[in-house]
């Protein structure tokens, strides 16, 4: 995507150097339009393929319901989020989810909670917090790791103190 961006910038510069009404201006404009179309197709393709790959390898997908508009206010994040075409990705995720009968769940970040694999304490944390840190027993684990343990074995199965 960054590469495509450079190309777009170059084509924009190219176009700005041509005089309106001349043949070369028309040519440059066409080239730019074509490049934009290509980037758009690439993004769509990426969103669709990523969604399909996820759906075909999982039984259930839950995602943090991000407020894209709020995130885009952050300039650094905005670029990545727009590039990733989050909205298009979700569209395809739901589409393939329906096709293959895989439940897709949107989770409100504020109400996400996770049970501790060590002691069962229910902790509220945002999905964007990647580390599970329990205030009950002091267990520190990767969030997904903890979730997988709880899902597979239930709580009380692991202990930071080697119980
Ligand atoms: Zn705990």
TrEMBL record:
InterPro entries: Cas12f1-like_TNB, Transposase. Keywords: DNA recombination, DNA-binding, Transposition. Residues 86-149 form the Cas12f1-like TNB domain. It comes from the Bacteria. The keyword DNA-binding applies. Residues 2-74 form the Probable transposase IS891/IS1136/IS1341 domain. In the C-terminal section; belongs to the transposase 35 family. This is Transposase.
């Amino acid at each position: 995507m960054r590469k495509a961006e450079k190309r777009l910038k170059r084509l924009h510069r190219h176009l700005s150097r041509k005089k309106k009404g001349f043949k070369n201006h028309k040519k440059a404009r066409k080239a730019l339009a074509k490049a934009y179309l290509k980037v758009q197709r690439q993004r769509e393709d990426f969103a669709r393929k990523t969604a399909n790959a996820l759906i075909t390898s999982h039984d259930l997908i839950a995602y943090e319901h991000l407020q894209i508009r709020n995130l885009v206010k952050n300039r650094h994040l905005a670029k990545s989020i727009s590039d990733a075409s989050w909205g298009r990705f979700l569209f395809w995720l739901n589409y393939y989810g329906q096709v293959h009968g895989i439940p897709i769940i949107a989770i409100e970040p504020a109400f996400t909670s996770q049970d501790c694999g060590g002691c069962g304490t229910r902790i509220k944390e945002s999905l964007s917090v990647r580390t599970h840190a329990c205030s009950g027993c002091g267990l520190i684990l990767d969030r997904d790791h903890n979730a997988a343990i709880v899902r597979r074995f239930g709580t009380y199965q692991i202990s930071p103190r080697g119980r």
